[in-house]
Amino acid sequence: MAAHGIAIASPSSTPKTEPVAEGRTTLSKILLACGIASSLLYVAMNVFVPTTWPGYNSASQVVSELSAVDAPSRPLWVVLGMVWALLVTAFGWGVWASARGNRPLRILGGVLIACGLFNIVPWPPMHQREVLAAGGGSLTDTLHIVWSMVAVVFMVLAIGFGAAALGKRFRFYSIATMVMLIGFGVLTGIDAPRIDANLPTPWIGVWERINIGVYDLWVVVLSIALLRRNARAAGAR
């Protein structure tokens, strides 16, 4: 409608996009919050799943032993692990969608999506220590090591691209995270050969869980940073 040369928009012509924008914002928040949920779930898995295996010691045994062949904790770990992988995939999608021209952040989203999809299918399981010491290891034990190495590569790539994607403070935090991963990874690796020989490893579970916890915390901090970043961008718009 026009009057005296002034165009007057119809009241219903502009607000139509608002519900769509609000829906996208809500979906983005949910997807990014999946990063926090994935870390909390993994911590919960390491607290409650060991209770299904009488005699399991979280301080002296590694996480992989919870899903070992014939381990009583394996069925629950596999199911919860698939849920965790789905949360990681959703988080990666949220990171990808939040990139908005930030190439390292978009690559980070792709790395997280690939990591989640890689972990949806249960890993080839290792055998329990007694079986390994008796020479009962098989191809699945070798593949389990390969899968573990791939998982480490995903973690390193994620931290690297995360450090490049966000500000200086997060970059320094990511570097500190990487240093801790290397340090406790070395401690874990020193004791790892003793597992195959069924020798005592009194602290290997501690070193490995600190390593995992450091990365899980990094994911939580990343998720919160992106949620705040998106909120500021929405406020500016």
Q: What features would you describe in this structure?
A:
The protein is mainly α and 237 residues long. It has one domain. The chain is built from eight helices and two strands, in the order E-E-H-H-H-H-H-H-H-H. The protein has a two-stranded antiparallel sheet. A hairpin with a 2-residue loop joins strand 1 and strand 2. Helix 1 packs antiparallel against helix 2 and helix 2 packs antiparallel against helix 3.
Strand content: under 5%
Rounded to the nearest angstrom, the radius of gyration is: 23 Å
Give the helix level as a range of percent.
over 70%
Largest sheet: 2 strands, antiparallel
* Total strand segments: 2
Shape assignment: elongated
Number of domains: 1
Count of helices? Answer: 8
Average pLDDT, all residues: 90
Spell out the helices and strands N to C: EEHHHHHHHH
Helices and strands in order:
Layout: E1 2-3, E2 6-7, H1 17-48, H2 74-97, H3 103-120, H4 129-133, H5 139-165, H6 168-191, H7 193-196, H8 204-236
Antiparallel strand pairs: 1-2
Question: What characteristics describe this protein?
Answer:
2% strand; 237 residues; 8 helices; mainly alpha; two-stranded antiparallel sheet; elongated
Would you summarize the structure shown here?
The chain has 237 residues and is mainly α. It contains eight helices and two strands; from the N terminus they run E-E-H-H-H-H-H-H-H-H.
